[in-house]
Amino acid sequence: AGAETVKRAVELDLASRFQESLVCYQEGIDLLLQVVKGTGRGGGGGRARGGLAAGLLFFSDGKYHKQIRIEENATGFGYEKLFQEYLTEIVSEVWVEDPYIRHVHQASRYSLYNFLRFCEMLVKGPCKVKTIHLLTSYDEGSGRSQQISGLEEIQKSLRSYGVTLNIGFSSSIHDREIRFNNGWMIKIGRGLDYFKKPQGRFSIGYCDFDLRPCHETTVDVFHTKHTKKM
């Protein structure tokens, strides 16, 4: 029964039905553990325990881990494509940690526009987001006032859609991660800024991020029973 349940979990995983596969994985491992406990310390039982070790590390503490690698110049990885699977209807609160949500000057690798596009995706649903928590770092030099002004404008605009944006700043933040209160957590190596600069203002991919070439980066998706709060 345990083997069949794990097999079903793999099928669901390949079909991108991640939440259902997570449940099957956990149920299958629990069933296999019951068998291991009943085998004692015989040769066969010892081998079974060793074989399960990696799976237990993979799902220890109720965590699920999936890795997506975005190749250099790949397209089709707009925010909806990347996040929609995890934005279920019960999502009402989102945490964004990214040290480079800064001004829109061309010299900056990261842009407030990326964060704005992410917020637009949340507003469109199907989730019912009511609160977004942003933790970032201050821009250096003269760009700080533009950064604060831009974030306040996004904050005001979100308020008209019934969404509260809480903004925090940290000088020591380094990690980049996005968390939803349904337990899903996404870590992107380059944060929200994994898109390449468009060739021109009127080139394909300027408006539609699905058509925009990407920088090479890795996306790690986790599921935990509890998400930490800032």
TrEMBL record:
UniProt record, GO biological process: midbody abscission
A GO cellular component entry from the record: midbody
Instruction: Please give the superkingdom of this protein's source.
Output: Eukaryota
In this chain the MITD1 C-terminal phospholipase D-like domain maps to: 76-223
Which residues lie in coiled coils? Answer: none
The record's section on Pfam families has: MIT_C (PF16565)
PANTHER family per record = MIT DOMAIN-CONTAINING PROTEIN 1
Q: What is this protein called?
A: MITD1 protein
